[in-house]
Amino acid sequence: MTISVLLYSEVPLLRQVKERAYLGSIPFLIIPHVLAGITALLVGPLQFSSRVRRGNPRFHRALGRVYVCSVFIAAPLAVVLSHHRHDSRAIHFVVANIVQAGTWVIATGAAFLTARNRHFHQHRDWMVRSYAVTFTFVGTRVLQPLPAWNRHSEAGFAIEIIMITFMAILIPDLAFHWSAFTRRRS
């Protein structure tokens, strides 16, 4: 899905002269945001490997710190970029990015604190939530190749960001507690 988003959403965007000129005007914002976001997107799945976690716990912890730092760089910069780019009257997009970035920072911070306090079961749950929010970058763009999907306004896209962020928290929680929903207590 990530490769699809890069090919259908991001590469065509970068081919636009106006977009390249804009991005060229903000290299100190966009470059750290993109690098930190890519790092979080790539490092996250390695954190879920039980082989890495059990076989090399120091590497797992080091990657975890890289992931946390990446999130704590990319998320605030996303808010700054959303405010910088859009018309000040389009506050809905800024609010959507604040919701998304805030959720990402909170879930990642909770994952970090639960690991530090050695609550490993809760740590795993918070990491799943955090990575699900990391993946909202893909989730908000994966349907862009469909013409009907692109007909909504900027306000519609802002609502989409909030809904996908909400689902990124809700769906893992449903999965964590599925047995409580489907089995009776004996």
Order of helices and strands: HHHHHHHHHH
What is the residue-mean pLDDT, rounded to a whole number?
Answer: 88
Inertia-based shape: globular
Q: How is the quaternary structure best described? A: single chain
In a nutshell, what does this entry contain?
By secondary structure, the chain is mainly alpha-helical.
Question: How would you characterize the overall build of this protein?
Answer:
The protein is mostly helical. Helix content is 81%, strand content 0%. The chain contains ten helices and no strands. The chain has helices spanning 2-14, 17-24, 27-47, 50-55, 57-85, 91-116, 120-134, 136-139, 154-176, 178-182. Helix 5 runs antiparallel to helix 6 and helix 6 runs parallel beside helix 9. It starts with a helix and ends with a helix. The mean pLDDT is 88.
